[in-house]
C-alpha cells in the first residue's frame, strides 16, 4: 500500500515539475515579447517624429535598405499588432498553467497525506507485532 502511494506521489511530483517548467518557459516568452513590443513602440515614436520626405533605412542583415516612411510605419504597426496578439496568447497560457499548478499542488497534498497516513499505519502495525 505504501509503495503504491509512493509511486503515485512520485508521478504527481514529476507532473508538477513539468507544469512548473512550462510555466517558467511561458514567463520567459512573455518577458521577451514585452521587450520586443517596447522596442517597436520606441521605433514608432521615432518614425512619428519624421517628416514625409525624410529618409528611413531598415537594417536587413549587414545592409541598410532605404524604405518609404509610410511603409516603415505600416511594418512597425503590423509587428506591434502581431506581438500584442502573441502576448495575449501567452498571457492566457500563463493563466492556464497557473491553474494547473494550483490543481497539481492540491493533488500532491492529498497524496502526501495519504502517504504519511500509510506510513503511520505501517509503523503502528510493526509496533503491535
Describe the structure.
This protein is mainly alpha-helical and 129 residues long. It is 84% helix and 8% strand. The chain is built from two helices and two strands. It has a two-stranded antiparallel sheet with strand order 1-2. Strand 1 (56-60) and strand 2 form a beta hairpin. It is rod-shaped.
Major β-sheet profile: 2 strands, antiparallel
Topology, number of strands: 2
Residue-averaged pLDDT: 92
Number of helices: 2
Shape: rod-shaped
Give the helices and strands as they follow along the chain: HEEH
Beta content: 5-15%
Structural class label: mainly alpha
Uncertain segments are: none
Distance between the termini: 18 Å
* Strand arrangement, major sheet: 1-2
- Using the CA coordinates, give the radius of gyration: 27 Å
Q: Give the helix proportion (percent range).
A: over 70%
Short description:
The protein is mainly alpha-helical. It contains two helices and two strands. It has helices at 2-49, 69-128; strands at 56-60, 63-67.
List the helices and strands and how they pair.
Elements: H1 2-49, E1 56-60, E2 63-67, H2 69-128
Antiparallel strand pairs: 1-2
GO cellular component, one term: cytoplasm
Subunit structure: Heterohexamer of two PFD-alpha type and four PFD-beta type subunits.
Keywords: Chaperone
Q: Can you tag this structure with a few keywords?
A:
single chain, 129 residues, mainly alpha, two-stranded antiparallel ribbon, 2 helices, 2 strands, rod-shaped
Amino acid at each position: 500500500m505504501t509503495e503504491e502511494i509512493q509511486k503515485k506521489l512520485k508521478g504527481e511530483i514529476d507532473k508538477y515539475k513539468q507544469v512548473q517548467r512550462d510555466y517558467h518557459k511561458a514567463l520567459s516568452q512573455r518577458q521577451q515579447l514585452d521587450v520586443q513590443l517596447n522596442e517597436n513602440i520606441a521605433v514608432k515614436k521615432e518614425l512619428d517624429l519624421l517628416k514625409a520626405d525624410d529618409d528611413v533605412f531598415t537594417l536587413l542583415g549587414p545592409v541598410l535598405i532605404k524604405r518609404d516612411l509610410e511603409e516603415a510605419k505600416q511594418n512597425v504597426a503590423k509587428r506591434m499588432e502581431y506581438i500584442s496578439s502573441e502576448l495575449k496568447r501567452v498571457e492566457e497560457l500563463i493563466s492556464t498553467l497557473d491553474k494547473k499548478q494550483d490543481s497539481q499542488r492540491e493533488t500532491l497534498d492529498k497524496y502526501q497525506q495519504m502517504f504519511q497516513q500509510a506510513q503511520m499505519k505501517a509503523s503502528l502495525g510493526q509496533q503491535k507485532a
